[in-house]
Specification:
The chain has 201 residues and is α+β, with helices and mostly antiparallel strands. The protein has one domain. Helices cover 29% and strands 16% of the residues. Strands 6-7-2-1-3-8 form a 6-stranded antiparallel beta sheet. A two-stranded antiparallel ribbon has the order 4-5. Strand 4 (125-126) and strand 5 (129-130) form a beta hairpin. Helix 1 (2-10) runs antiparallel to helix 2 (18-25). The chain starts with a helix and ends in a 16-residue tail after the last strand.
């Protein structure tokens, strides 16, 4: 029954409620990680797997090469999308095409700057404390899609809304610190296979 609860949580509408529903799906913290959630995925995300966060906006990175906290706001909402390193080139090309289409529809052109690559183990735990859950959430034509979603660290407490937001920001900062400067530029990632999506020089 728990896997079904997890799948129902991941299908929550609006998407901004996914994290909240996922917290309720199992009694264990990040309990849904125990199940293969994507029917076409290669299985649960292992600690030693590399995750690729696509960078399509220069503002996604700060001057020191670290991630902008705005990139991790969705940790506590719908999840931060990543592609597992075993993803085929077609999955990256499809994702970049979809990003381009969405940005064009919003009247704001975006270009592929590269990927921020890091091991799942880097963000799952921080000194033995659970930091982020990583779930295999395959999508049509993207079996290696995954989502990073933070656990509810305030479950069963009477923490104020202000305290919750403060702790969320603190967690985002810690995830950024653990990942560190991580950009693989578009012209280097997979031998430049996706430079057609990059800004022309």
């Amino acid at each position: 029954m728990s896997r079904e609860n997890c799948l129902a949580a991941l299908a929550s509408e609006p998407p901004e409620t996914i994290a909240e529903q996922l917290h309720k799906a199992t009694p264990e913290c990040c309990g849904c990680e125990a199940y293969q959630l994507g029917d076409t995925s290669p299985g649960r995300v292992a600690d030693n797997e590399l995750l690729n966060l696509i960078i399509s906006d220069p503002n996604s990175l700060l001057a020191d090469g670290m991630l902008n906290p705005i990139m991790l706001v969705q940790l506590d909402r719908s999840g931060v999308s990543v592609l597992r390193d075993c993803a085929a080139d077609d999955e990256f090309a499809l994702t970049l095409s979809e990003l381009n289409e969405r940005s064009a529809a919003n009247g704001r052109a975006r270009y592929f700057h590269g990927v921020c690559a890091f091991a799942a183990s880097m963000v799952r735990y921080d000194q033995g404390t659970r930091l982020v859950g990583i779930y295999d959430t395959s999508l049509p034509k993207k079996p290696n899609h995954a989502d990073m979603i933070a656990p509810d660290i305030h479950a069963g407490t009477d923490a104020s809304k202000t305290q919750k937001e403060k702790d969320r920001r603190k967690r985002q900062k810690r995830v950024i610190e653990l990942i560190g400067p991580c950009l693989i530029p578009a012209r280097q990632f997979r031998a430049g296979a996706f430079v057609k999506f990059a800004r022309s020089l």
